[in-house]
Structure formats: C-alpha cells, structure tokens
Amino acid sequence: MLEKNYMKLEFISKSSNESFARVVVAAFASQLDPTIEELSDIKTAVSEAVTNAIIHGYEYGEGMVTVEATLEKDKIEIVVEDMGRGIEDVDKAMEPFYTSKPDLERSGMGFTVMETFMDELKVESKVGQGTKIIMIKKFKSLSDRE
Amino acid sequence: MNLSMKVINEYLIVSLNGELDHHTSEEIRKKVDQKYFNQNLKNIILDLRGLKFMDSSGIGLVMGRYKNCKEKNGDVAIVSTNPYINRMLNMSGLPKIINIYSSMEEAIID
C-alpha cells in the first residue's frame, strides 16, 4: 500500500500549459498503478478543469493556476484552483451544454465530463475571488486486486 | 498536434494526429475554416483515428464545423476507432446528428 503522497504545480494561465498539467498529474497518479482507462479519465478531467480556469477564470488574461494532487490508499484527490473572476451561478454553470461563451465554440460539457470521469466533484467559487475544483477518483483496479 | 488536409470532390478530408484540447483546437479551427471557405467546399470528413487525446474542446470543434457545413447545405462525418475518443463523442450526443464510421471508405461511400 502506497503511503500518502502529495504534489503541487503552479503555472501561468497559458493554454499551452493544459497538456503540461494533465501529463504531470497522470504521471503522478501512475504510482497507484491505474488502468489505461483510469489514466485517460484523469487526464481528461484535469484538462477540462485547467481549460475552465484559463478561459473562464482569467478570460484569457494572465493569472496563476494551481493544481494539487494527493494520493492516499486507492484514490487520488485533485484540486484545480484559480484566483480569477469566479462563477456567479455554479448550478447553472454545471448544467450540461450550458456555456457562458457560445461564441468561442465551447461545448458546455466541461463539468459534465469531470462529473462522469471522476467519482466525486465539488465546485467552490466566489465572484471576484476565484474558483476551486475538487475531484476525487478511486482506482478500482487496486481495490479489485485486494 | 499534426493536421493534414486534402480535397476530394467537394469533401474536405481533415486528418488529426496528436492531442486535441482547447490549445490545439483553436489553430485547427482557423486552418480548416480557411480552406473550407476559400475553396468553397461543401462537406467535411474528420479523421480522428490518429488522436491520442481529446477533451470537450474537440466536441466544440466538431459542432462548429457541423454548423458551417449545414449553412452550406453540406454535412460532416467522423472517422474514429479509438474507444476513449468514441466515449467522449457518445457522451456529447453528437452521434445523433453526425455519422461516425470506422473507415474512410465507409465515410466517403455513404
């Protein structure tokens, strides 16, 4: 059984950092020996959360995005945080296909993807202060083996 | 991300290789639209078999091209065999309006 492990990554809100962030978290998660499908789920969820921070949190302006991940027992907790404009109505933002920026060809599926691919999703947001996305995924491959 | 395009009849065939996210989709959108409108084409076939990763930005890219094609009375088709990419496509409901094929031949014949 893996002992608790933790990482923190901080980068400026450039879209080229989206792939950087998801690859780092996936590499960190691989310590828990996940399946390819579980790794793909984590990469996709991180990509959605970081993209949201860049497009909606900072609206393409410059700010810092923080990604933290904690491995404990058979699960990973991922926290993606920005200090951008925040979300006025979180419930509305989480509705499938809702987008506040239809002109940018956003599908409005970001939160739906995070909810589907992870086991738990929590969104904390304050207007003018930023948004924190907390996601948890349990690695079924590990619990199955025990 | 690697993008290659070729034109067969009124079809613009777009093959994507690599990772499709918000960052890479913006560049692809520009290049595809430029070719599609400059050459006055009608239909687009998106070949996603070379993709190793796609998030919901890919769905936005497909939906945007679908809208453009519909305005010109054309259509969009997708060629995809990767189960993770297909899972994302299915989640979005896109298969209700866009046909997904497993080979280029099927997409062109249909």
Provide structural commentary:
The complex is a heterodimer of chains A (146) and B (110). Chain A is of the alpha+beta class. Chain A is 37% helix and 28% strand. Chain A has a five-stranded antiparallel beta sheet with strand order 1-2-3-5-4, with helices on one face. In chain A, helix 1 packs antiparallel against helix 2 and helix 2 runs antiparallel to helix 4. In chain A, 41% of the residues are buried. Chain B has 110 residues and is α/β, with parallel strands linked by helices. Chain B has a single domain, classed as STAS domain (Transcription Regulator spoIIAA, 2-Layer Sandwich), CATH 3.30.750. Helices cover 45% and strands 33% of the residues of chain B. Chain B has four helices and five strands. A five-stranded mixed beta sheet of chain B has the order 1-2-3-4-5. Chain B is globular, with a radius of gyration of 12 Å. Chain B starts with a strand and ends with a helix. The model of chain B has no long low-confidence stretch (mean pLDDT 95). Classes of the chains: A alpha+beta (146), B alpha/beta (110). The interface between A and B is medium-sized, with 23 and 19 residues.
Characteristics:
A: alpha+beta, Heat Shock Protein 90, B: 110 residues, alpha/beta, Transcription Regulator spoIIAA
Layout: helices, strands, pairs:
The complex is a heterodimer of chains A (about 150) and B (about 110).
Chain A: E1 5-12, H1 17-29, H2 36-57, E2 64-72, E3 75-82, H3 90-94, H4 110-117, E4 120-126, E5 130-138, H5 140-145
Antiparallel strand pairs in A: 1-2, 2-3, 3-5, 4-5
Chain B: E1 2-8, E2 11-20, H1 22-38, E3 43-54, H2 56-71, E4 76-79, H3 83-92, E5 99-101, H4 104-109
Parallel strand pairs in B: 2-3, 3-4, 4-5
Antiparallel strand pairs in B: 1-2
Helix pairs in contact in B: 1-2
